[in-house]
Amino acid sequence: MSCLADKFDRLSATYPAQMRSSLVLPLLHLMQEEKGHLTESDAVFIADYLGVPAMQVKEALSWYTMLQRAPVGRHVIKVCRNISCSLMGAERLIDYLKQKLGIGEGETTPDGRFTLLLVECLASCGTAPAMQVNDSYHEELSEARIDAILEELS
Amino acid sequence: MTEPRVFFNFEVTADSHTLAACRERSGYRALEKALLSMAPADVEKEVTASGLRGRGGAGFPTGAKWFFVDKKSRVVYLCCNADEGEPGTFKDRWIFENSSHQLIEGVLLAAYALNVRHAFIYIRGEFDLPYRRLREALTEAYAAGLAGERILGTEFCCDIIVHRGGGAYVCGEESSLLTSLEGFKGYPRNKPPFPAVKGLYQAPTVINNVETLATIPWIISHGGGAYAGIGNQNNCGTRLFGISGHVNRPGLYERPTGYPLKRIIFEDAGGIRGGKALKAVIPGGSSTPVLKGFEIEQVSLDAESVIQAGSMLGSGGIIVIAEGTCMVRLLQVLTRFYAHESCGQCTPCREGSAWMDRVLGRIVAGQGVKGDLESLESVTRGIMGNTVCALGDAASMPVASFLDKFRDEFAYYIEHGRSMNDGRLEV
User: Fold this and answer.
1) Both B378 and B405 in a single domain?
2) In terms of domains, do B210 and B247 share one?
């Protein structure tokens, strides 16, 4: 964990010294980038590092949607299913993805390549329908676009 | 284009977001003007004179918000609310991707006026390119002496800290944003005390939306009076309106307030897809009450005009719905969203939003029963006004307005166990 602690230190230095507690979410994000998903012991590690109650970090871990508490595939596909995307065919594309990947919402393909998540508004309403693969946004989706996007991912 | 533009005043190219390009279109001149020739109070005076209202949704006058803060307090914080998540809204994202420096300059001007040493930009966690563009711009600004210590060689120092959210809609509510920024799950707080008195870490705090702050450089450059002269008198200026849904040219349009709603839909956005008739419009983000097509005839993009029509202009996210759309299933998209995003703190919202979603789910599954609509209405009444933050109201208003405006469709669905419109959402 020493390399991680270095990264923690660098991030902590960007916040005012009296705001240790504010680092809970940034450190959870950082740790997730390193590890893929987070466990309670990760939360305790962060709490110890910051000197805040472990319960505070555990609560945050269980509350924020972007934090993954179970292993995910190499590529996490998050498809928007909110109003503007629905009006532009999100349901059809979600069905297409489920069929293509052979998995349901929240599941991971057996080869560990893809996890399919359905999410709420990504602020892509003007370029709907939209999805996010890992960090990258993909917009104005169609079945053909989805085929091309998935093909490029190992 | 003869009307003034605060945002869409340059051509977007591969490098139009850089500091060099921003400087060519007079970026940071307002900051220079303020730091070298204006007192902090003069900056506030211009903002007050401009009549600028908050662009996050509530429309509170920015000058008044600043006035309430004790600038002599030992610590004052500024938080830029960039947790853009109201369904139908995608304007702040454009600012980050194309004009981050404009926002940074606005943050610095506000920090100067309010005696702020540390400013925070709370940006929603999902944002990728907007986040990277903001980080790049900040790096450029620090390197050029435009942020950090002794800005432009003056005594003014201000650090800008970018804080990524965790994917919670409620954190766009200002007090929830503060709780989240303090490292907790984002429960909203009771008001009073207002953030202007006790905000981040109990210090006086101003929270402004991205579009609001990014407008301030224009106001300082051209004067508050010039800004007040744009658009309608009581809700002046230009705004970024996002149009989505069943239109031919969805996207972001900068228009002066008072611009006709019908015109932005039928001319700018190219009218309804497939030449269909207009069924309904949600004028200000998904939380605002739905209007029927014919109700928008006289409505203009002005807060008061939309209120008169029975809705709200909110965040300026206009969602357009064509004839043939199933309003029952569309409402369920929204009840599912609010049930998911209710933070869990207040019982009426936590239980009520989930209850409404279950009843909608039952109706959509063809198992609605007599009394379901009355029961939904009773739940909305139980939530509205009875929660710490506005999310409860936001969850209730779509339900109440959909039932009010499209009751026959709901009644049909319950009676026949199927949609009057084949359950279509896409046209």
Assistant:
1) yes
2) no
Residue B81 pLDDT level (bands cut at 50, 70, 90): very high
CATH code, domain with A29:
1.10.10
> What residues of A are in contact with residue B331 (Cβ under 8 Å)?
none
Q: Is A137 on the interface with B (CB under 8 A)?
A: yes
Task: In whole angstroms, give the CA distance from residue B15 to residue B137.
Answer: 12
Which residues in chain B touch residue A43, judged by CB atoms under 8 angstroms apart? none
pLDDT tens-digit map of A131-153: 999 999 999 999 999 999 999 99
We report the CATH number of the domain holding residue A123 as 3.40.30.10
Per-residue pLDDT of B288-309, as tens digits, reads 999 999 999 999 999 999 999 9
With a cut of 70, say whether residue B2 has pLDDT above it: no
Residues of chain B contacting A83 with CB distance shorter than 8 Å: 87-88, 245, 282, 286, 319, 330, 333-334, 337
Contact A63 B186 (CB under 8 A): yes
Answer whether B343's CB lies under 8 Å from B176's CB: yes
- Same domain assignment for residues B100 and B23: yes
Which residue spans within B203-353 are E strands per DSSP? 205-209, 238-245, 251-256, 278-282, 291-292, 317-322
Q: Alpha-carbon torsion B125, B130, B132, B137, what sign?
A: negative
Reference B277, options B318, B245, B319, B321; nearest CA is B321
The interface pTM score, or ipTM, of the predicted complex is 0.97
Q: What integer is the mean pLDDT of B208-222?
A: 98
Predicted local distance difference test score (pLDDT) of residue B1: 46
For A126, the closest chain B residue by CA position comes to B251
Chain-chain contact of A123 with B282 (C-beta, under 8 angstroms): no
> Which residues in chain B touch residue A122, judged by CB atoms under 8 angstroms apart?
126
